Amino acid sequence: MARGYDAVMGIPAEDGLSLTLSRACHELVISWAADKPWEFIGGGHFLAQVDTPETTTSTSYAALATAGPSLVIARAGDYDVTTAAMVSNNTNGGRSRMSYDIGGTGAVDADAIWTAQSGGVSGGEGSVSRLRRKTAIAAATTLTAKYKTGVAGTLTASNRVLSVVPVRPSSPYGSSNSE
Predict the structure, then answer these.
(1) Does residue 1 register a pLDDT over 90?
(2) Nearest 5°: phi and psi at 109?
(3) When comparing pLDDT for 1 and 149, which is higher?
(4) pLDDT band, residue 38 (cuts 50/70/90)
């Protein structure tokens, strides 16, 4: 069994040690292992939602009139980020995209969910979602959803969701060191 030491807590730790952290109606269970200190093993996700339908004609990522949703990452670490929305574009061949800023880094297509209107149809809508693993997010970083049209037309987005689940958060007590 691997053993280590949590320097801030001042206690020895060994593989299999688990802690339950409770805060603001969320409970996270993390375990300590020498090769992966403080790995998430269970608990809820953090979720923000904006139901209000809003529109944009912007071809670069921008906030909608009712901005967001947005979430603040409390602890540094690795997270699974899910975006979801009901989106449409009123133009045949138009595209609708939802992505998110990560702190001061702007939204990018690589993180986006999107729909494309085709086949002579305009105004069709779809409910889409996507999960992306983001590594080494700093503590106190805000994730904020942004939107754009890909080519032309007006994007409409509603029932917008941003959700995060910790994968490997930082130690709840500061730095952890293996012996």
Answers:
(1) no
(2) -60, -30
(3) 149
(4) low
The angle at the Cα of 125, spanning 120 to 131, to the nearest 5 degrees, equals: 125
CB of 156 closer than 8 Å to CB of 90 = yes
The full set of domains in the chain, from first to last, is 3-178 (2.60.120.760)
> What residues contact 102, with CB distance under 8 A and at least 6 apart?
134, 137, 141, 143
Find, among 96, 179, 165, 86, the residue nearest to 129 by Cα.
86
- The two tokens of residue 26 are 């969320």
The residue to which tokens 């809820």 are assigned: 44
Position 124 scores a pLDDT of 65
Which one is predicted more confidently, 52 or 28?
Answer: 52
Cis peptide before 12 (omega within 30 of 0): no
